[in-house]
Amino acid sequence: MIVMKFGGTSVEDARAMNNVIDIIKREQARQPIVVISAIAGATNTLLKAASMSLEGQLDEAHARLNRLLERHVTIAENLIDDRATIQQLIMSFKRRFEELKNLCQGIALLGEHTTRSLDAIASVGERLSSLILAEALEQRGIPVELVDARSFIITSDQFTAATPLLEHIEVKIKEILPPIVQSGKIPVTQGFIGSTLKGVTSTLGRGGSDYTASIIGSTLGAQEIQIWTDVDGVLTADPRIVPQAQTLEVISFREASELAYFGAKVLHPSTILPAVEKKIPVIVLNSKKPDRGGTRIIANPPHSALSVKSIASKKGITVINIQSSRMLMAYGFLEMIFSIFNKYKTPVDLVSTSEVAVSLTIDNPTHLEQIVIELETAADVSVLTEKAIICAIGESLRSTGGVANRIFRALGDINVLMISQGASEINMSLVIEEEDIDEAVRRLHAEFFERKSA
Q1: Per the domain annotation, does 250 fall within a domain?
Q2: Short-list 116, 133, 69, 117, CA closest to 95
Q3: Are residues 444 and 316 in the same domain?
Q4: Is 124 buried (19+), middle (13-18) or exposed (0-12) by CB count in 10 A?
Q5: 54 CB-side CA count, 13 A
């Protein structure tokens, strides 16, 4: 049994959905479970309609919803031949969009929206795309069963970023999905969405479709989890910055986790976690070019001659410098610092320390002012904004001499503000000016991937 997750660009129109159907048919003998995202741009459109309703722009919100409805109708009409089926789908679409318009009307009247109402609105994209795909598969003689993910992805009530309640999920998944697979049908379900213990619709946050697929795969002990997207796999750099970036054939879970966190958009950072626990391979593939091998992410890949596997980057970084002589020969100072970040639920990316100073980075400045005020009760604090992190990642970093020298030599005149290398030694991270990040990525990529190593 395998799990196949298809992202928004993989189902963006009828042609893309036809590719998906061909891919599923090719894997039919391996007992696939299919997880699908909303069509490309749908979730953004739905949430934009909600925000416009809040701002009193109800007519424009309705116009956006109408255009999204037409996109779904067009996909269905170009994908399915049976007119009766198409008419049933269109009626179903219209009912859903009437519900959406009523929700937007309520937002406009009340002048506010809750995270609960946003989840109700955002969930519609996946529910529609999965409905279309299931009908199209059935029309092509592939036995399927559409399964509402809200029946087994049970979450907390932290709407828009709900936490999966894995103990409840495991029971539900094992109860619902295996009988469908054993009957010879392919379960088609939604990523991203779930429901609370009280049955209220929730979402896992952006990238949650990958997480859904990983949870299903790990719970059922899948042979592999396939993540189908619009790129050939995990690359040596962001192709928008480095057009000649290369596809990596195999990387470790640890490398993939670092890449996901520090800017690679192929995978959601949480995707890896359930798969890591069960050592289930995750394969990243391109639905537009399904014959390409993609990238295989496994627990223990063979040793690589590459000291660096990929160059990742992350913009929008804030550096906080904390200095106090009270740190010298003292204990509890770092605990005090991190308790403040914990209080404001602000994750820290990088940390660098000396005897009397700590430098750290965050990517969410929402509570920056309050954090600084509290830190200043015990130390001198300075803040640097509009910075970026550049990261060289590779399992062989720890066993290869001279990598740091090559990094600094390649960066040349680009000023480095902070250096951090974690205990894992698979990642060396540098903080630089945001305006220098693209050039820095190009230089490091040229150093490690575009010429023979010295």
Answers
A1: no
A2: 69
A3: yes
A4: buried
A5: 12
